[in-house]
Amino acid sequence: MSDEETGLIEKYVEKHKIGFPIARLGSGEFEKAIGVTGFPTSALIDPRGKLVWTGHPAMADGKIGDALKGSKKTPLLPAALADVEKLLDKKQFGAAHGALAQLKDGGKLAQADAAAAQALLDYIEKRSEALHRQIADGITAEDFFGAWRAMNQLATGFVPMPGATEAVAKVEEWKQDPAMMAEVDAGEKLAEAAELEDEGEFEAAYKIYKAIVKKHKDTKGAARAAAKARELDEGAKRKIDKSCGECRQLGRACVRHSKG
Amino acid sequence: MLSSIVLALAAASPRGDASELPDFDATLWWNSIPLTLEQLRGRAVFVESFRTW
Hints:
The complex is a heterodimer of chains A (260) and B (53). With 260 residues, chain A is mainly alpha-helical. Chain A has three domains: 6-68, no CATH class; 80-176, no CATH class; 184-258, no CATH class. Helices cover 62% and strands 6% of the residues of chain A. Chain A contains 13 helices and three strands; from the N terminus they run αβαββααααααααααα. Chain A has helices at residues 6-15, 29-34, 61-68, 82-89, 93-106, 111-140, 144-157, 164-175, 178-198, 202-215, 220-234, 245-250, 255-258, and strands spanning 22-25, 41-45, 50-55. A two-stranded antiparallel ribbon of chain A has the order 2-3. The two termini of chain A are 43 Å apart. Chain B is globular, with a radius of gyration of 12 Å. A two-stranded antiparallel ribbon of chain B has the order 1-4. With 53 residues, chain B is an all-beta fold. Chain B has strands at residues 8-10, 19-20, 26-30, 44-49. Classes of the chains: A mainly alpha (260), B mainly beta (53).
């Protein structure tokens, strides 16, 4: 959990391929209550909802191991929504949306269950809208890999919601188009190389950029990769030796390493 | 998705000086439906507070 701007957290989740739940906090109340004084800080809350431990995540291992012995996977949703929980577990958001709408329209849900159903409907709709936006933004920015990923998520998890069936058709259309699939593949490799650059692995990133140019020439991805490779060359970055203090200080390869 | 919730790891042994907590004041969730501590009752919850910088 973090209280930072949505965009920053979004990028962080994407970059580190985080698959577990991340929450954006609205205020500092919860962090204050668990005793956060620096980052990162972890906390363990017991099955009764009480705080039992707070500390640095590196110190959490033993505590979690003990805790796992008595693990109980209780339902997260009210009993009336048990079938919906199963669909959500299988990432069948479209089917869950349909089931929730049916339950709600049936008028037989207790007030609290109806409120939970509405919150879930809102959540699924927002998630679907976000994926539609990612597709549109990806295409505009020529991030075809990003668009492809969002399109596939819509196609596999959100049918029959509005736009999801179109996503299924679009996925098939792109699959039949070698030029588009080349862009997607180049985009995936570009993302991989960008990640390596972030980690200071410039030479490895450079090799990937060069491979994209070779494999997917005449694609927009190859043009980007060529520009990135040029940047690394001209900025004398690709030969940076991470263990060299001078390279690190300069942000480019020092005289000694630029010759290597 | 719900099965991937590692926030809710296990049942833990309660400590004597345990204190009551306010609920998550979350405005947005990734990789999960919106959750409350009440929904996680019966499970132990492991949370990590972080910043992207």
